[in-house]
Amino acid sequence: xxxxxxxxxxxxxxxxxxxxxxxxxxxxxxxxxxxxxxxxxxxxxxxxxxxxxxxxxxxxxxxxxxxxxxxxxxxxxxxxxxxxxxxxxxxxxxxxxxxxxxxxxxxxxxxxxxxxxxxxxxxxxxxxxxxxxxxxxxxxxxxxxxxxxxxxxxxxxxxxxxxxxxxxxxxxxxxxxxxxxxxxxxxxxxxxxxxxxxxxxxxxxxxxxxxxxxxxxxxxxxxxxxxxxxxxxxxxxxxxxxxxxxxxxxxxxxxxxxxxxxxxxxxxxxxxxxxxxxxxxxxxxxxxxxxxxxxxxxxxxxxxxxxxxxxxxxxxxxxxxxxxxxxxxxxxxxxxxxxxxxxxxxxxxxxxxxxxxxxxxxxx
Length: 364
Hints:
Elements: H1 2-28, E1 35-38, E2 41-58, E3 61-64, E4 70-75, E5 82-83, E6 88-93, H2 98-130, H3 136-165, E7 178-180, E8 185-189, E9 197-198, E10 211-214, E11 219-226, H4 227-230, E12 238-243, E13 250-258, E14 263-265, E15 268-277, E16 290-307, E17 312-314, E18 317-325, E19 330-341, E20 345-350, E21 358-362
Antiparallel strand pairs: 1-21, 2-11, 2-16, 3-10, 4-6, 4-9, 5-8, 6-7, 8-10, 11-15, 12-13, 12-16, 13-15, 14-15, 16-20, 17-18, 18-19, 19-20
Helix pairs in contact: 2-3
């Protein structure tokens, strides 16, 4: 009985050993790989496009500056207000220089004395003229001198008003102390406050900006393009603008400017581009919104194409594997010439026909 159990145990061990050996042998054999078959597409359209990032900006952003130096006394607008050309934006209080003020006051005093003197002379001449002691010519000359003295006095008073208050007594509405909008548009920014000192533009200074105004009906896309792609762009080329902050908003645009000089950013040369875009019908649009511009760099229509994954590149050469025997799945390696690629499909110009079947990816 013990001998029988011993023999049975050895038989079981032997069976396990043989089974393990057979299993390992079967799994160690190389399985034949099966591939998916791909047919070339005919009359295909291949587009090479790029996506540019940038912002939506007004074509012209005007900085409103004062025509006289002084202190902001009143501000009539704030960012977001619509203004028309000629609307008053702010009022400036003039701080006169002592020398100019003193000179203007002295001029008024001199003009007043001259007017008083001429008025007395004119009265005496008129009295003598009535008594026929002087000629009519002398009388008219005295009247003319009196009017000239009055004009000079008014001019001196007006000059003093301008120096002291910045306001012409003869034309207060047209005073330089009133800062007016030079265009019709939207106020984008008011960088000053009441009490801020401002200076007018001159040879040595650009002057203080009172407000920035822009026409929001005339907008452009401003972005950057890499030096490897700038040569594929041209003036008048169409693109599609997408605004990130506004969902489902796309607009056609047209390139109108490509910078002739690049700038180096993080080791990469980029060129500025501008494109005209019609966005005036979009509500809630704000200057400075980030946007993307999709532009087609090159295009090929009516061509033969295959998935780029079936192409095997070797240096500057390209190859495909053409099916020879479907049953055994044997392939022949053939050189091909390729053209434009969109990153998924690639144009094949020479090397295969529309009836060829190509080796694709391995089946799982």
